[in-house]
Amino acid sequence: MTHSLAPTIHVAREQSHLAWDNSIAPIARVASGAAVAFDMLDAAGGQITADSTVVAIETLDFARVDQVNGPIFVEGAEPGDTLQIELLEFQPAAWGWTALIPGFGLLADEFPQPALNIWSLVDGWAEFAPGIRVPLAPFCGEVGLAPAEAGPHSTIPPYRHGGNMDTRHLTAGATLYLPVEVPGALYSMGDGHAAQGDGEVCGTAIETPMRATVRLTVRKDLRVEAPEFQTAGPLAARTNVGSFYAADGIAPDLMEAARKAIRAMIAYLQRTRGLSREQAYMLCSVAVDLKISEIVDAPNWIVTAYLPLSLFER
Amino acid sequence: MTHSLAPTIHVAREQSHLAWDNSIAPIARVASGAAVAFDMLDAAGGQITADSTVVAIETLDFARVDQVNGPIFVEGAEPGDTLQIELLEFQPAAWGWTALIPGFGLLADEFPQPALNIWSLVDGWAEFAPGIRVPLAPFCGEVGLAPAEAGPHSTIPPYRHGGNMDTRHLTAGATLYLPVEVPGALYSMGDGHAAQGDGEVCGTAIETPMRATVRLTVRKDLRVEAPEFQTAGPLAARTNVGSFYAADGIAPDLMEAARKAIRAMIAYLQRTRGLSREQAYMLCSVAVDLKISEIVDAPNWIVTAYLPLSLFER
């Protein structure tokens, strides 16, 4: 089997669908080991552009959000197999957006108003405000296969067969393993993110149109129950370069602990960097990482929010 | 104010207590800015030694667990202030232990039998099995202040005023901020850990007697509601040196997601490294990190367990 990088298939922007559904006909068939190139709209399906204002969030049609491109039928893939997805390359557009969408996000009840930030993505960086910039680490939030269960499944949540995993460490060079549930696996992807923190707390990353190339290989020798992956190398190589400021959320419930941690980090960004509460929440979503510090010291668990202080170095 | 590293106070092993309680008399008073050196037993209060067998876990007296050394009265500290704790130095013993304690830990229901691993800590490394070694990154699980509320509070959980935070990134060079609730702050610490993963999933780290030095400074200009801290530098510098293997737990509940992720990581360690299920669970506790990958794509959240593959490089 030859493994050249050159993709054998190019998937176009309009070749997308809005549900995980095993009845959606594949747009192409490839041999196991083939590379496939995708050209994808942003997660809003083109409803937001580099010139948009907050009106675009106020009028956003949620029924058209989180489309995925595909599906690709991989020859030889059968239920019980694993699809190995080598994430070869991600190329974001020259712009991106982050929004507060009413009703969506970890602190949705505290942020009822829509907000939108349009980013310029230049030379691998996204400037948020003077003196604050985020290094790009592009990936796709949506990577998944069709489920065995008949009928449409929303593209908003993730599932054991993938979907909206929004996992920031699935960058170029990583290899993802997903359980195959239907013949041909029926692979799709979408939701380009130029950068994101662990958690994606406001519900949006730096959303961007994306070009991506992946290699799809059927693994008969491996069985996984849910997504597993190997990272390209050290984690968060571009942000893990100096000290972090960290805020704890301590509670008997992990969700409440996470909310407390992000609230404390927002307060820190307000008091030390002069950001508005809305700006701070958006910056948390694209650059702050949520870790579970301890999950065993009953009755109180700790979720900690970590902010790389290197964002503020010029 | 002079800030020499030389500690002005030495706290001895026997100067410990078993509750957070503002009625416990301070063992010493120091000026703001003073350095204090602690010599501490392990979290079992000396019930486990380098020669112990699993019998020590079977007969463990839980009423003597998680003692903390202190308290230190810091002059000038008043309720509403912040105590700044510079973590200057941690020096573990030449041995440590990790245990499965029945009824304790993230998967307690699946691990009813006690187990004990005794580690030799040599030249900054702890060997788990031939070909598997963990780099030391020592810190104290317990760092806290006395609460305003009268009466004894267990040292097992963490609180807004600190306590059993079990936060692996509070290593030497980090600075911790805790809210002062009583005059003098009443600072104590304990629970030496030679290494731990984010989460401490089996409930024990590499537990070890520890010597530590901290500098305690009253901050009238800063107010925190719960623990906040700045790390010494990049996170997990000794383990974030190569690729990680990662397993997702996907569920509508973060606790269930964490349990799934650790179960999948245990299975990975069994199938690829030949560890027993009990060994794999202990290795997860000392070296695997739990991150919240996404917490917004309702109804399913993702907790991901990250294993540094550098543990297996010799």
Protein architecture, described:
The structure is a homodimer of 314-residue chains. Chain A has helices at residues 55-58, 254-273, 277-287; strands at 9-11, 16-17, 28-30, 34-40, 68-74, 82-92, 95-100, 115-122, 125-129, 132-135, 139-145, 158-159, 162-164, 175-179, 187-193, 210-219, 228-230, 244-251, 289-294, 301-308. The first copy, chain A, is mostly beta strands and 314 residues long. Chain A folds into two domains: 9-230, Acetamidase/Formamidase-like domains (Jelly Rolls), CATH 2.60.120.580; 244-312, Acetamidase/Formamidase-like domains (Endonuclease I-creI), CATH 3.10.28. In chain A, strand 9 (125-129) and strand 10 (132-135) form a beta hairpin. The termini of chain A are far apart. At the A-B interface, strand 12, strand 17, strand 18, helix 2 and strand 19 of A face strand 12, strand 17, strand 18, helix 2 and strand 19 of B. Strand 18 (244-251) of chain A pairs antiparallel with strand 17 (228-230) of chain B, so a sheet runs across the interface.
Give the tags:
homodimer; 314 residues; mainly beta; Jelly Rolls; Endonuclease I-creI; 7-stranded mixed β-sheet; 6-stranded mixed β-sheet; 20 strands
List the helices and strands and how they pair.
The structure is a homodimer of 314-residue chains.
Chain A (H helix, E strand, L loop, with lengths): L8 E3 L4 E2 L10 E3 L3 E7 L14 H4 L9 E7 L7 E11 L2 E6 L14 E8 L2 E5 L2 E4 L3 E7 L12 E2 L2 E3 L10 E5 L7 E7 L16 E10 L8 E3 L13 E8 L2 H20 L3 H11 L1 E6 L6 E8 L6
Parallel strand pairs in A: 1-4, 3-5
Antiparallel strand pairs in A: 2-5, 4-16, 5-15, 6-14, 6-16, 7-8, 8-9, 9-10, 11-13, 11-15, 12-13, 14-17, 18-20, 19-20
Helix pairs in contact in A: 2-3
